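Page 47, continued from p. 46.
Same chain as before, 154 aa.
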Amino acid sequence: ATRETRARLLLTTSRRTPKGLEETLRRDLPKDRFADACWAGDGDSRRVVAAYLHGASAIVVGEDSMSMIHESLASHRPVVSIRPQGSSPPDYYLSYVRHAEHEGWLARLSLGDTLAWSEISRHARGYPGDVAAEAAAAVGERLGWPSTHQADNL
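Result:
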């Protein structure tokens, strides 16, 4: 997608990212496309995730981090999840990621797959609406709390 769109990359790894993967990313990704990179394996401990998600027009995230998948989907940007080779995620991870793909919230790729930008933006749209607000309202309703509209009239 970076070749097709001349996209600039914001990349961060985590303390759990294998050193070999960081080395591969550094070697294989075009250096002139980086707007910024946070290499945790080199000791870069900046807290960049929120800023990167906010500044992104699309997000690529590893399927080995469910929290990063949820944060990416909640950003309301197109999301592509990458399946690490040889991974064996727990059944509930795999079930959720398949569900998210079925709902059109993300597109799934294996390392080495390619997907055109037009496909990413068409098939991966993140969570619909304000999921957090909808979830809070549903929980509040079950607990018998007044809705926001009802609370305003108290």
